[in-house]
Amino acid sequence: MLAISEFDLIKDYFNKSGLIPTTEQSARIPLGIGDDCAVIDLPPERLLAVSMDTLVADVHFPAKADSGLIAQRALAVNLSDLAAMGAEPLAFTLALSLPKVEEAWLQGFSLGLEQMIQKYRCPLIGGDITKGPLSITIQVHGLLERGKILRRDSARPGELVYVSGELGAAGLAVSLLGNGMSLDKPDTKELHSAYYQPVPRVILGQSIAGIASAAIDISDGLMADLGHIAEQSGVGIVLNAKAIPISKAVKNFMGAMGDKSKGLNLALTAGDEYELALTVAEDQQEELQQKAAEINVPLTLIGRVVKGSRVKCLDSDGREIDIKNSGYRHFS
Amino acid sequence: MLAISEFDLIKDYFNKSGLIPTTEQSARIPLGIGDDCAVIDLPPERLLAVSMDTLVADVHFPAKADSGLIAQRALAVNLSDLAAMGAEPLAFTLALSLPKVEEAWLQGFSLGLEQMIQKYRCPLIGGDITKGPLSITIQVHGLLERGKILRRDSARPGELVYVSGELGAAGLAVSLLGNGMSLDKPDTKELHSAYYQPVPRVILGQSIAGIASAAIDISDGLMADLGHIAEQSGVGIVLNAKAIPISKAVKNFMGAMGDKSKGLNLALTAGDEYELALTVAEDQQEELQQKAAEINVPLTLIGRVVKGSRVKCLDSDGREIDIKNSGYRHFS
C-alpha cells in the first residue's frame, strides 16, 4: 500500500485555491501554509481576537456524519466566538486528527470548508494533520477595533438583555441524536441545519460592537451563558419567560409530546445554540434595534440586568421558573 | 458522582498565576482566558507568527507517560516552529481532550506547562477542554521583526548548510519506545530527555534571523526537512556524511549493536529532532558562527546548497549514501 504523507494530504486537499488567502487577503497574511509558521500582518489600529474550539467524533458530532457538514459545523462554532467579540474574521488554522486516509471523506470535508471560507471570507493559513481518533480543532483569528470589543464583564444594572434568533432547535436535535434518532426526515430538516449548519452571527457582532455593553454566544445554553456575563460583570439578570423566542419546530415537536411550556426549558438550557445574547444601556436600545433591522437579524428583548448575582427566569405572575438543568456540562 | 464542568477545570488548573500573562505581558495580551476570544495587541512594527501542532496519545507519546513530560513535549515542539522562523514567543492556546478528569494527571500537566511558560516567557491565553481520546493541540504565537523572517523558500546555490546540536537521540528513543522498551534506565537518560524534553532553539532562531537565508526545524528528520527547503527554494543540497553531528549516546548504542556507520542513518532520517537546519551565504558565515558562540549553541557545517533539486549525502569518497527511509511519514 502506498504510504501517504501529511504533505501530500495538505497539497491535495488543503493548500489549494478556494481555501487559502486570495491575493487581496495576502497583504494581511504574507505567509500561509507551507512554512514552520504562518505570518499575520495586523493593521496597526486593530487588535487580534483568537479563539480555539475542538470537536471530537461521537462527543460533538456523530462520527458517521457527512464530512462536509462536520467541516461547516466546526468552522461555524469557532466563527461564533469571533461574532461574540464583535470581530471581523481574518483567517483560521486547522488541526485534523484522522484514523485513516479516506479520499471521499477528505474531499467532502475540504468542500465543506471551502463553502464556509468563501461565505465568511476567512481563509485557511496553516495547521496540522495527524493520525488519531477523529477530531477537529480550529483556531479562528479576527480583527477588532480598539474600544469596540464585546466583552462578558461589562454589563451594568438597569441595562436590557436581548437575544438573536429563535432558540431550542439545536438542543432538540442533540437530544434526538442522543436517542439514536435520525435527522434526515423532511420534518426534521430545520433541526438538521440548526445542528450541522448553525449560522454564526458574524455581521450582527460587528454591527453591535460599540453599542452593546456585553455579549456572549450561547453555545453552553442561554441561562448558563448569561450566568457567565452575570458572574464576570458582578450583576444579576432577570428574564421574562413569555418573551423567550422559541423555534417553531421546537414548539410543534414539544407540543406534540405534551410539553405545556412547549420547549421553554430547552430554549433556556440547551447548548449548541450559536445565537448572541447581549446587554445594552436603555439609551442605546434604539440604535441597537436599528442596526439589527438593517442587517435583517431578529433580536428579542428578553430581560433586564439587575443588582445581584443570579440569572432567574420569571413567569407572567412574577414567579421564578424551576429550570431542569443549567446547560451543557462538559465532564458529567 | 460530582459533575465537573470545563469551567471548573479551567479555573482550578489553567487560569492561575504562573500560567497566564503577567502584568508586564498583559499590555500585549489585553484579554486572556475567560471571554469568547483572547485578544492580542501586536506592536505596530512587528508581524505575528502562528503555528499549530497536535500530539495524540499512543501516536506522538505513550498514553501512560508522565503528564508533566507530555505537557513539556507538547509546548516544546510548538516553540520549535517559532524558533525556526526566528520569532520571539508571545503566548499560546491549548485544546486538551481528556477521556476523564484525573486530578493528579491535571496537576502534573499544569505544572509541566508552568515550567515551560516561565522558561520561555510564553503564557497561556485560551483554548478548549473537551471529553475525548487523550490529545493535545497547541497553537503558539510569536513576534517577528519585519525583514528578519527565517523562511524555507530563500536558500540559494553556493550557500552553506548548518545544523544545531547533535542528532539521533530522539529518533533512537522513538525506536526503542516503539519496541516496547522503557527509557527510565540510567543509561537511557539522555534519550529520555531528548524525547520528552526537546530544547526548542528559540534563542538561536532569534539570533540568526537576518543572517541565515533559510531555516527549518528538523522534526520530520534532517534529510526530509532539508528536502522541504530544497523544494521550496528550487535548489539541491549536498551533505557531507563525515560532518553530520551524531549524538554520543547514539554512537555508543549503535556501535554496540554492530552498526558500522554508528547511527548515521538515524541522524539523517529520524524525526522528532528539534534542532534547526539552516542555510547561509558564505560572507555571512563568520557572523553566524559568532552569534552561535555568543549564545553557546553548537552549530556544525554539514553541507552546501547547489543547483538541482535533490538532497544527497556523500561519503568521504564522494559517493552518494543510500538512505534507508526519508523521515517520518504521517500516514504510513
CATH architecture classification of the largest domain in chain A: Alpha-Beta Complex
CATH H-level superfamily title of the largest domain in chain A: PurM-like C-terminal domain
CATH hierarchy class name of the largest domain in chain A? Alpha Beta
Low-confidence stretches of chain A: none
> Which protein chains are joined by the largest interface, and how many residues does each one contribute?
A-B, 70 and 70 residues
Tally of structural domains of chain A: 2
Arrangement of strands in the largest sheet of chain A = 7-9-6-10-8-11
Report Rg of chain A.
21 Å
Average per-residue pLDDT of chain A, rounded, comes to 93
What is the string of helix and strand elements of chain A?
A: HEEHEHEEEHHHEHEHHEHEE
Task: Tell me the CATH topology of the largest domain in chain A.
Answer: Phosphoribosyl-aminoimidazole Synthetase, Chain A, domain 2
Major sheet attributes of chain A:
6 strands, mixed
Structural class by sheet pairing and helices of chain A? alpha+beta
Q: What percentage of residues of chain A falls in helices of 4 or more residues? A: 25-40%
Shape of chain A: globular
Assembly status: homodimer
